[in-house]
Amino acid sequence: MKILSVASEAYPLVKTGGLADVVGALPAALSEHGVQVTTLLPGYPAVMKAAGGRAVYRWRDLMGGGEARLLRGEIAGHPLLVLEAPGLFARKGGLYAAAAGGDWPDNWQRFAAFGQAAAQVATGGVRGLRFDLLHAHDWQGGMAPVYLRYAQAAVKSVLTVHNIAFQGQFGAEVFPRLGLPPEAWSIDGVEYYGGVGFLKGGLAAATAITTVSPTYAREILRPEFGMGLEGLIAGRSAELTGIVNGIDPAVWNPRSDAALCARYDEADLARRVQNKRAIEQQFGLDEAEGPLFTVVTRLTWQKGMDVLAGALDSLVDMGGRLALLGSGDEGLEQAFLRAAARHPGRIGVRIGYDEALSHLLQGGADAIIIPSRFEPCGLTQLYGLAYGCVPIVARVGGLADTVIDANPAALGAGVATGIQFDDVTHEGLTYALRKAVSLYGQPARWRRMQQRGMAADFSWKTSGAAYAALYRSLVSA
């Protein structure tokens, strides 16, 4: 079976978040199930530099964006297609926003062209390339199922929602330039509150919809999580599936991770202290008896970072320390930097992102704090489990699906892997932090939690099988 995976980023070529990790891991995860995944990416400068490839198709003018070529190459040993469209993707700045901030004003054109090209490739429009199914990711890939639908193509499609908060909404004035028939401007098409919705259109058009955890699939049926799309999703609930993400053990493995000062397994957790000492040195933290917490995230409201910022004085009063790696809202960045200035040696902050440092933080910190208001799946808690860095998580989305709360029953049975809490408020988070400090003071229990998390299988083995089964059910139907 041949699948065309349509996404705006994929590790290791280009990454802004967890979407890239998932898209990058899918080809290997599915190959053992007899599924060959070809990944289609936009030709950003980083992708063009790393991927190369040979041209197999040309467009004289792709959706008004000028000349474009389809290049054929490889990503981590698996098939790769790159849409080289200099007028759309060859630019400095972020993937979706200019360096000075603000979305690229032609994002509608960039990712509509991407979706249109994907649909053409999926349906055999390029000689030598034919696929059984198209798998699109998030709003950036959402127009691909739309173009398949209105071309009345036989190829079926899956749309995975990684985060429904990002929807790709544009003004009504772009609709005439999308190359869609008039009937696409409707409640069953791409029209969305008087404008054009790329994710909305994809949700309406795709043969099947998946989210990145079972709990998130249930949550987005409700207004507080559905972000305005809960009605559409409820109407398509029979086609909705939640498949939890996995992690790549070749990349995230404390037994072999070159980013760690000391590698270890669940039988040799004492070696983690060498990584802790390295974190303390890099973040200017004092050595102390209490737990070392870490945060590796975007500093945003969704991630509950405003609540954490308000709880830092309490965290220090409990005897905890914090090493934070992240960037995002300027106000939150400044709040954490001020907290570090108030508590020198107890709180260290690094604004930005560093892949190797994120591995070291998981390999040396005692616990990772993830107080998200909503979290479709989350990967950092999975990395924490794999590295013996106990997750402290809000009970939402994939966090609820992957962390076993250290309640009395779970502790008694020896199955707890982390700490969950319900209210993303100062009181709720402070309660969870106190609980963590208390459990950390019980070394035998804490060690069992670490070992239980490290023994869990969060590789792509199970999730890959679930995707393969979904693909086959759609193709056979």
Description:
With 477 residues, the protein is of the alpha/beta class. It folds into two domains: 2-246 and 461-476, Rossmann fold (3-Layer(aba) Sandwich); 269-455, 3-Layer(aba) Sandwich (Rossmann fold). Helix content is 39%, strand content 19%. It has 21 helices and 18 strands. The strands form three sheets. The chain has a nine-stranded mixed sheet, sandwiched between helices. A six-stranded parallel sheet has the order 15-14-13-16-17-18, with helices on both faces. The protein has a three-stranded antiparallel sheet with strand order 8-10-9. Helix 14 links the parallel strand 14 and strand 15 (347-351). The chain is globular, with a radius of gyration of 23 Å. The model has no long low-confidence stretch (mean pLDDT 96).
Largest sheet: 9 strands, mixed
CATH topology title of the largest domain: Rossmann fold
* Uncertain spans: none
Taken as a percent bin, the fraction of beta residues is 15-25%
